[in-house]
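re: ur msg from earlier - yeah i can do the 2-phosphoglycolic acid complex, just paste it... oh wait u already did. ok heres what im feeding in:
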Amino acid sequence: MTSPRRRRLVAGNWKMHRTGPEAVELIQQLRDGYTPGRAEVMVAPPFTALESASRALEGSGIALGAQNVHWEPQGAFTGEISAGMLRAVGCTFVIVGHSERRQLFGETDAWVSKKARAVLHAGMRPVVCIGETLADRDGGRTLEVCSSQLHGSLAGVAVEEMNHVVLAYEPVWAIGTGRNATPAQAQEVHAHVRELLVRLFGRPVGEAVRILYGGSVKADNAAELLGQADVDGALVGGASLKAQEFLAIVAAAT
Ligand code: PGA
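and the outut:
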């Protein structure tokens, strides 16, 4: 079981799905079946649905997150959205460094760390994603790759800021593939990440930071994954678009 000091977090990454009205409908279904409990819950709709999602979530106890952010506060950055803008619409979390952004849009660790710091400075919590590819895993480089991403993605984040940071371990080969890491594989990386956090920021911080697992989390594998000592929650993609399935994952975390 997760340490009682760490409150579990179940986060839904909706990716490029749902318009504003569709987001409101899904949130209504979630509200109908959700009773706030021990676990924290967050949903991250696309930018264009944030405003209506924010209103639909009012008083629900479910937090609002964004899927990406630019690190500058404002300026000539066509197509980008700042942390202040996300805060103004009601976001309290922002996912940064998702592997789809790293792989498809060329995001580097240096960018991810700038984004994480911008999110922190705006008073929100970054969910910093790391994870190895199948080639990394097959080549025996999983821990090395995750360590290097962790170092790079948290560069410049101060110790005092770390209690607002959430990490997500998402093996790239498990995302959207229906092939999740086994609980033992997840626990191995989570424990390694926690040791690294202890080395970088000290034991109290390392023990307190939440590390989510992501990659094909479903209602039927959530309990087993969340049963691991260092798995403090889930970052859920596909299954977060189905209210009943997502609520079942939340129930498994509670
Ligand atoms: P998945 O996505 O649950 O559909 O595998 C997880 C994620 O990308 O955050």
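cool cool. The longest strand covers residues 125-130. ping me if u need the other ligands too
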